[in-house]
C-alpha cells in the first residue's frame, strides 16, 4: 500500500474530525464535525448551518485544516473548503440523527453542505505491528541516547 492509499484508508476509519478555519480577525477556530461522507479521493463532506461562524469564515478564507485522532492513529489534512447548496447531495447523505440540529429535516433552509478538498495530508499510525516495531526502535534509541529513525510506514506526508 503506498502512502496515498494508506492516508485514504486511515481517513475512512474516522467518523468525526476537527475543522479549523480562520476568522475575519485572523484567529484560528476549530470545532468538532461529524463526517457525512468521504469520497474515494479523500474529499470530505460535512453538514452545517449556513448561518454558522465557520461558513462566514470560509467566505473570507477557504483554507482549512482537518484533524482526526484515534487511540494510536492521527491524520492532519490541509486544503480548501466551500459551502455547497445541493439538495440531491443532501438527500443522498441525510442522516436522521441530524434532525437534532435541523428539526425541519433535510429540507431545512439553514442546512448547507461543506466540501473539503484536501491538497496535503499527513498521518501517524502507531497501531498494530508497525506500532510495536516503532516502540522497539524508540526504546532502543532511548537507551542509546539517540532519536529513533522516522519510519515511513508509521508517518508520512502526502500531496493529494
Pick out its properties.
single chain; 160 residues; alpha+beta; Pnp Oxidase, Chain A; eight-stranded antiparallel beta sheet
What does this molecule look like?
By secondary structure, the protein is of the alpha+beta class. It has helices at 3-11, 53-60, 87-93, 128-143; strands spanning 16-22, 28-34, 37-38, 44-49, 63-69, 73-84, 111-125, 155-159. It has one domain (3-127): Roll (Pnp Oxidase, Chain A), CATH 2.30.110.10. Strands 1, 2, 3, 4, 5, 6, 7 and 8 form an eight-stranded antiparallel sheet that branches. A hairpin with a 5-residue loop joins β3 and β4 (44-49). The longest helix is centred in the C-terminal third of the chain and has 16 residues, at 128-143.
Concise structural overview:
The protein is an alpha+beta fold and 160 residues long. The protein has helices at residues 3-11, 53-60, 87-93, 128-143, and strands spanning 16-22, 28-34, 37-38, 44-49, 63-69, 73-84, 111-125, 155-159. It has one domain: Electron Transport, Fmn-binding Protein, Chain A (Pnp Oxidase, Chain A).
Amino acid at each position: 500500500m503506498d502512502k496515498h492509499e494508506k492516508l485514504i484508508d486511515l481517513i475512512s476509519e474516522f467518523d468525526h474530525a476537527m475543522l479549523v478555519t480562520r476568522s475575519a480577525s485572523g484567529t484560528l477556530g476549530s470545532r468538532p464535525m461529524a463526517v457525512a461522507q468521504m469520497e474515494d479521493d479523500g474529499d470530505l463532506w460535512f453538514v452545517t448551518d449556513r448561518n454558522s461562524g465557520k461558513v462566514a469564515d470560509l467566505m473570507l478564507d477557504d483554507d482549512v485544516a482537518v484533524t482526526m485522532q484515534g487511540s494510536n492513529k492521527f491524520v492532519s489534512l490541509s486544503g480548501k473548503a466551500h459551502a455547497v447548496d445541493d439538495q440531491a447531495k443532501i438527500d443522498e447523505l441525510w442522516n436522521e440523527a441530524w434532525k437534532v440540529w435541523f428539526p425541519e429535516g433535510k429540507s431545512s433552509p439553514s442546512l448547507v453542505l461543506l466540501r473539503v478538498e484536501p491538497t496535503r495530508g499527513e498521518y501517524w499510525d502507531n497501531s498494530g505491528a508497525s506500532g510495536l516495531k516503532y516502540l522497539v526502535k524508540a526504546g532502543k534509541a532511548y537507551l542509546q541516547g539517540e532519536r529513533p529513525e522516522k519510519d515511513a510506514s508509521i508517518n508520512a506526508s502526502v500531496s493529494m
